């Protein structure tokens, strides 16, 4: 409790997140549409690799695509350490940018095809929630949650039957797309001693 002589501060900061410049420079050299799911995943894996190379976050990336045209709508990279926000995971960044571009919180409003998120690693507990609330209709994953755990990251308390839960909500799930290529980025990150952070603390 605040003592009576002290008042809460009168202003609070707004929240601003910008993708690093290298993301737009890289995508400016890439195509716009990716009909093959493996091509969509390889673009995302390359973003995860470049995120490590540029020192702008953890070895994770994601992107939102139009499900019908397979055109890239919004990229996302893990920016936890560079932005100083624990929620700045790749999936959250891609969802926020997609929603900003479309001017709506509901990425499923437009039609039944909707949007797909491609994630270099299966989403953690937080990102699973973010995907469910976003209205996205499809999730494509590269590396597994277990692959992320093996290099020390914490996936959080995910329901054991999360794939079934997603599908029961009308969100299709495709796993293990280019998994070995996605895992190679995780392993390279560990080899070079990249910081592995998570909120886990000893139980008292
Ligand atoms: Zn996450």
Overview of the structural elements:
The protein has helices at residues 21-27, 37-53, 80-84, 90-102, 125-134, 145-150, 162-168, 179-191; strands at 61-66, 72-77, 115-121, 138-143, 172-174. It is of the alpha/beta class and 204 residues long. Strand 3, helix 5 and strand 4 form a beta-alpha-beta unit. Strands 2-1-3-4-5 form a 5-stranded mixed beta sheet, with helices on both faces. The longest helix has 17 residues, at 37-53. Bound molecules: zinc ion.
Key structural traits:
5-stranded mixed beta sheet; 204 residues; alpha/beta; binds zinc ion; 5 strands
Largest sheet: 5 strands, mixed
Q: Using DSSP, what is the number of strands?
A: 5
Alpha carbon gyration radius? 18 Å
Helix fraction by DSSP (H/I, runs of at least 4): 25-40%
Largest sheet, spatial ordering of strands: 2-1-3-4-5
Distance between the termini: 24 Å
- State mean pLDDT (0 to 100 scale): 93
Q: What are the secondary-structure elements, in order, as H or E?
A: HHEEHHEHEHHEH
| Shape assignment | globular
Hetero ligands? zinc ion
* Helix count, DSSP H or I runs of 4 or more residues: 8
Uncertain stretches of 5 or more adjacent residues: none
Strand content: 5-15%
The chain-level structural class is alpha/beta
């Amino acid at each position: 409790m605040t003592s009576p002589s002290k008042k809460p501060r009168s202003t609070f900061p707004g929240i601003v997140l910008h993708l690093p410049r290298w993301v737009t420079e890289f995508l400016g050299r890439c195509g716009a549409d990716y009909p093959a799911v493996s091509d969509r995943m390889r673009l995302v894996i390359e973003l995860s690799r470049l995120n490590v190379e540029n020192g702008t976050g953890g070895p994770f990336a994601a992107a939102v695509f139009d499900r019908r045209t397979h055109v890239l709508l919004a990229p996302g990279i893990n920016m936890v350490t560079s932005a100083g926000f624990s929620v700045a995971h790749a999936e959250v960044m891609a969802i926020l940018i997609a929603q900003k571009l479309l001017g709506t919180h509901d990425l499923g409003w437009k039609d039944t095809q909707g949007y797909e998120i491609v994630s270099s690693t299966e989403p953690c507990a937080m990102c699973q929630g973010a995907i469910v609330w976003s209205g996205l209709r499809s999730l494509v994953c590269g590396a597994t949650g277990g692959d992320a755990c093996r290099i020390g990251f914490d996936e959080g308390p995910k329901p054991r039957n999360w794939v079934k839960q997603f599908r029961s909500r009308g969100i299709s799930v495709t796993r293990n797309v280019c998994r070995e290529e996605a895992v190679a980025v995780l392993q390279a990150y560990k080899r070079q001693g990249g910081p592995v952070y998570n909120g886990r603390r000893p139980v008292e």
